Amino acid sequence: MIQLIRIIRLLLLSVIFFTACNSEKTADEGQQQNFVDKSAEVRVVVGDSAHLSAPQFITTPPLPQSVSFAGEAVPLHKSDVREALENELTVNMFRHSRTMVALKNIERWRPLVEQTLRENGVPADFIYLGVAESELDNNAESYVGATGMWQFMEATAKDFNLPINRDADMRRDPKLSTEAACRYFKWAYEQFGDWTLVAASYNRGVSGIQKALKDQQADSFYDLHLNQETARYVYRILAFKLILENPEAYGYFLKPEERYQPYEYNVVTVDEDIDDLVSFAKSHNTTYKELRLLNPWFNNTSSYKLNVPRKTTYEIRIPAASPGNLQ
Length: 327
Prior knowledge:
Blueprint: H1 2-48, E1 68-69, E2 72-73, H2 79-93, H3 96-119, H4 127-134, H5 154-159, H6 174-192, H7 195-204, H8 206-216, H9 228-245, E3 265-270, H10 277-283, H11 288-294, E4 314-319
Antiparallel strand pairs: 1-2, 3-4
Helix pairs in contact: 2-9, 3-6, 4-9, 6-7, 7-8, 7-9
């Protein structure tokens, strides 16, 4: 009898064990099948470039058949050049917040910057160097003290006739700083005869690029081995050019009214001190805040005064629109 009970118990345990194994196998197979189905679904989505149920859709940024900077062809047939440009395109295409800011901001300053470049014989593509430097922010300041839209250091600014004193820092004036940048670009072009090298020199310095060209017996930026910052610099400019000129191709969609519009203003020329800029603003039907917005070069933040040096005149922008409606 005892022997019979043992046999029955063994049979029951065997049945339970095999049932559990089969259940586990079935669940396992179900999970594997589910994974295969989802994987196939995602593969179809990516293969067909369609948005069905993939968690996100990420792709290599499109690269045109040909790219140029300031009328100079970029040698995309060289794999290192192509890959370097693709890298900067990828970085900035997925740098969503800052690239969106650049897209919104560039139309505010494009008319002034491109006109100034054109008047000074500098290719319009150099506006994208300004984007790479500061996103065209007049109040930008780097940790080493480079300031303004074109990120001039104080010594360089003075070399290119950009006034800086206690009350005024013209590195932050969009018109005068762009004119100073043009003076640099034209001077550098006289040294190189090549606009791409001019752009690279804005980061490395003219002497630094000249030395690299001589030491490496090269005559093109694209043949130089440079420090990482300068090596990436020109490609970053090119990436901004491609994205900002054709934003939809890189996933950015803005309505015309979503882009920042150029400021509308009149100009008042002053040649003597202004003791109270608040009263000055009110006398011109505006506010001190709007005055500072249009004249970011005001440098005295400890008072509301503007001291004008002898034999000097300043052009102060006054909103053409009514207060609170600066366009």
